[in-house]
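Bit of a strange request maybe. I'm writing a small parser for structure token strings and I need a real example to test against, not something I typed by hand. Could someone generate the tokens for this chain?
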Amino acid sequence: MDNEITALTTIFTEFYYWLTVMIMFLIHIGFCTYEVGTSRHKNMMHTLMKNTMLIPLVTVTFFYFGWWIYFAYPNGPGINALFGGDGSIVSAPWAEPWGTLMGPTMNDPDGWARINGVFWAAFLLFSWTAASIVSGSVIERIRSSAFWICAVLIGSVFWIIDASWGWHADGWMVRQLGYHDAYASGVIHAIAGGFALGILIVLGPRIGKFRPDGTARDIPPSDPWKQVIGLFLIYTGFWGFYVACNVPIWDVQSGDGVFFSATNIYLAPTTLSAITVNFLMSLSGGLLMGYMCSRGDAFWTYSGGLAGIIAASAGNDLYHPIQALLIGAAGVWIMYKMHYWVERTFKIDDAVGAVAVHGYAGFFGVVIAGFVLWGYPSSPDPSFAAVTPWGQFIGALIMFGLLGFLPGWVTALILQGFGVLRIPKEIEIQGLDFATIEDNEQLEKDLAKAERAEA
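Reply from user aminoacidic:
Good idea to test on real output. This should exercise your parser:
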């Protein structure tokens, strides 16, 4: 850093991302609280530990290879050739786990050493979010070890591939499809919802979820208050999520020093004021529609608020606030109807509605952005494709289907083939926590008996 202005900009950016990481931590606290409140008492600790332990597993794997994937794969090796690209892997030495910039160092004249760690952490929290979305949908019947394998795959492999393709300033989907997804309707939410759906098809419903005639039973939560508090914590953490999707200050016009602005992830100018108003309007549209669709059901009202934000997130850097309100409401209506249609038709037991709230609302959000933002530039680079409905639709299929549903389904099939996907029926009926406690008590009795024998 060769002058005070450069130093101030760099240190401010470092602090900016550090603060977003702290706020986004509330998302994970919210997911844990929400899932525990949804689980029945006999499964609460299993649910909590399943979601807690994804933190170290995804963190370590994201350090070793997830961060590198983001910078190395924007050209889309293996698929970009279908769209005329070269598919080459980009060299990314600063993201290699053994690189000097992945540890503490001041030897960096461009200031990246100060920013790399907090930028990595912001993306890591996105990874936790993707894995936690999957976690809620599969509670009370999946083995912890099976879920942790799924968490690593969605958190450190598949979602970061889609981020590299469609959430990178030089991603091939942005260049060739005009893909626009500023606050991750598709990049995190649709892919995680699709991945969860793929697992659920193989995993099957909880015992007792469906009656003999095929109609679904309502399995009430153990603690509705934990559900509410958890969702409010997710709302709060979502503020940090939105801000972390921005670059706080950037020389937008190719470094000419004329136009500095906050930007979205594609380095196109936006403002924190714009995303603040649109966040609140889409939240409001979601809450209103959730209340109306469900006739005042608390679960779907609060979930509707989250789905409303997700539905509008793809274009909330550019929408008018009234557009954000209406898109949030429309996304909730669609995801609510889709949830119950899929449940009735395919007997899918999504315990927290995660596939609907994140997957269907996220898919809708990506597609509707193509119509509302039709013709907008997807990037400050004029050679990139503009936003179009067909580009967004193809992007939504890639996110939800190719990188979400398909890997989740295949992974679940493999785990099922090895007999390690689902908890045994006897333990599921007895309760995942109770069975564990009883096993520990029996172990203690056996140890005490052995000690008496030795004496």
